[in-house]
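Internal ticket #5521
Category: modeling
Description: The requester needs a full-assembly model to guide mutagenesis choices. All entity lines are attached below as received. Residue total reported by intake: 226.
Assigned to: D.W.
Attached entities:
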Amino acid sequence: EDQVTQSPEALRLQEGESSSLNCSYTVSGLRGLFWYRQDPGKGPEFLFTLYSAGEEKEKERLKATLTKKESFLHITAPKPEDSATYLCAVQAYDNYGQNFVFGPGTRLSVLP
Amino acid sequence: ETGVTQTPRHLVMGMTNKKSLKCEQHLGHNAMYWYKQSAKKPLELMFVYNFKEQTENNSVPSRFSPECPNSSHLFLHLHTLQPEDSALYLCASSLDGPGGEKLFFGSGTQLSVL
């Protein structure tokens, strides 16, 4: 069974204090690993897709990396507007590749 | 604006009511999804439609009934719900294809069952 776990459950950072969020996964044939950001009262918003171990993607203060067992979302010098819940999801080749399995998320708070 | 619109944004219903959630996407996608998001739990996939055909029913109780009249519209019909069905219901769409395709989500319907 495909599974995704995320740690920590919640993270509080001071503005400018860099850190990393972890996503660990088990999947039978990884089609893609996805990072989403979710603000309160809104649906998740796509950030990155990673397809193979060693791949990295960057967007502003965020950088996502992928190994065969986990992914990290590195946040460099975060700002208060980066506060949100960050979700990780995997998509497997089975089941026509349409079943995205999500992790429980990491709730990030960046204090000014 | 993500191109996926859900109505209503909030819904309060009694256990004997019948209501429907609506989702519309203007992205030209062919796959549409219903997800349930409960507090402190991962998003749970409920239904998947690909080109109007249901390809996934993730053991969802029959009190939830999906309908997909075309590739742009998706409904979730609700009847005789239970208080534990209170949650955020999210609609999403994707362009199916090889290599993985990202999901585009609506803002969700916050459902409260009394």
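Resolution: model delivered.
Comment from assignee: The mean pLDDT of chain B is 89.
Ticket closed.
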